[in-house]
C-alpha cells in the first residue's frame, strides 16, 4: 500500500513540475517531457538542415547556444505542449567582425506616421535627415553589450523654442539596432502625445 502511495505522489510531483519552465539545461534533464521537447527541436534542426557540424578551425570562436524552455497552455490553462528552442547568444558578436553599423536608407511609414500627422496638423515643415549627419541624433542603439539596451536622447521644440529634452537608458532589450530605434521612437511619441494633451487642455 505504501508503494502505491509513493507512486501517486511521484506522479503528482511530475505532473506539477511540467508547469514549471526549467531555468537551466541541467534542470531540464531531470524531466522526460523536457528531454522529449529538446529532442524534437534537435530533430527539426537536422531535418531542415539548419547547420552542419564540422571540426572547429584554429582561431575561430564557436557559436554559443542556449536552450529556452516554454510551457504552452490551452485556453483552459491545461498544458498544450512543452517547447524547447535552441538559440544562439547574439551578445557575443563583436562589431566589425560579425556585423557592421548601418543605416536604413528609408524609414517605414508606420514608424513616423504620428510625427507626419502632427507636423501636417501644425503646418510645420518636415526635413529629411541625410545619412552623413545621422550621428547628430545622439543615440547609442543597443549599445550596452550585456543588456542590449540603448541610451538615447531627444529634443522637443514648440516653434523655435526648446521645451523638453531627454537622455536616458531604455527599459526594454533590443535584438537589433533597428529595434532599438523603434523603442526610442515610441518613447519619444509617448512624450509628444503627453505634451500635446497638456497644451490642448
UniProtKB/TrEMBL annotation:
Q: Which source organism does the UniProt entry give?
A: Tanacetum cinerariifolium
Instruction: Please report the name of this protein according to its UniProt entry.
Output: Retrovirus-related Pol polyprotein from transposon TNT 1-94
InterPro entries (UniProt xref): RVT_2 (IPR013103)
User: What sequence ranges are listed for the domain Reverse transcriptase Ty1/copia-type?
Assistant: 49-138
Domain of life the protein comes from: Eukaryota
Q: Which CDD domains match?
A: RNase_HI_RT_Ty1
